[in-house]
Amino acid sequence: MHYKRILLKLSGEALMGNRQYGIDPQRLAEYAEEIKSVVEKGIELAIVIGGGNIFRGVAGASRGMDRVQGDHMGMLATVINGLALQSALEDADIQTRLQSAIKINEVAEPFIRRKAIRHLEKGRVVIFGGGTGNPYFTTDSAAVLRAIEIHADVILKGTRVDGIYTADPEKNKEATKFDFITFEDVIKKGLKVMDTTAFTLSQENELPIIVFDMNKPGNLLKVVTGEKVGTKVNL
Ligand code: UDP
């Protein structure tokens, strides 16, 4: 296997499927199968889940809500998604643990780095909910942070686009895809991979990022086995 321990970042929106908000159980079940195919190969997998399908702090703030209050709602939304994902994974007979950055002990373990690593070593999928536990951050930042903390080999950003393009491929038909790109070039060309805080944290810690289409069956396993899928951002 190309990678031994990976961190998969899934946005909340990815869980919506074709809906306008909330969670699509069909999509969750499909993701669970994708994840299972990787776990069965003995790869250690941690997941950071977003919350954008339920609530975003910035959206609340734009309508006059206190930003911190909104961010707390957003972080709780990620815990809701984490519980849904955990349930879907368990339905697929995958052992899981949900750890939350915000203490919510009746529903999830608190985030304890050593415990998370131990779960991974035992073959359990660890879902990290609650983002970083701090307002003004995103779950992309949480994904990079947790990946560094657990010594993941790579961070996989599962999206609905199959990589990083010269321009937005959904708007510009001329856009072409990169197979590889450096952190520096992403910044120079003004491309959008993650928010700046998350991206520079990854760069500073020499943690490669692979952006790939999570909705294409078999893709996750291909990425993990080192097949040329998506775009890899490296030093
Ligand atoms: N959030 C936060 N701190 C974090 C992570 C998330 O305050 O460390 C809040 C923030 O309001 C954010 C929301 O949770 O808008 C949902 O996360 P995000 O927007 O990253 O979800 P995604 O876009 O991946 O679905």
SSE order and pairing:
Layout: E1 5-10, H1 25-39, E2 44-49, H2 57-62, H3 67-91, E3 96-100, E4 109-110, H4 113-121, E5 125-129, H5 139-149, E6 154-159, E7 180-182, H6 183-188, H7 196-204, E8 209-213, H8 219-224, E9 231-234
Parallel strand pairs: 1-2, 1-6, 2-5, 3-4, 3-5, 6-8, 7-9
Antiparallel strand pairs: 8-9
Helix pairs in contact: 1-3, 5-7
Residues 11-13, 50-52, 56-58, 70-71, 74-75, 77-78, 131-132, 134-135, 137-142 line the site of uridine-5'-diphosphate (UDP).
Written overview of the protein:
With 235 residues, this protein is of the alpha/beta class. It is globular, with a radius of gyration of 17 Å. The longest helix is centred in the middle third of the chain and has 25 residues, at 67-91. α1 (25-39) links the parallel β1 (5-10) and β2 (44-49). It is 37% helix and 18% strand. It contains eight helices and nine strands. The model has no long low-confidence stretch (mean pLDDT 96). α1 (25-39) packs across α3 and α5 runs parallel beside α7. Uridine-5'-diphosphate is lined by residues 11-13, 50-52, 56-58, 70-71, 74-75, 77-78, 131-132, 134-135, 137-142. Uridine-5'-diphosphate (UDP) is lined by residues 11-13, 50-52, 56-58, 70-71, 74-75, 77-78, 131-132, 134-135, 137-142.
Strand order of the largest sheet: 4-3-5-2-1-6-8-9-7
- Pick out the low-confidence regions: none
Number of strands: 9
Provide the helix percentage: 25-40%
Stated plainly, the CATH topology is called Carbamate kinase
In the CATH classification, which architecture applies? 3-Layer(aba) Sandwich
List the bound ligands. Answer: uridine-5'-diphosphate
- Count the domains: 1
The average pLDDT is: 96
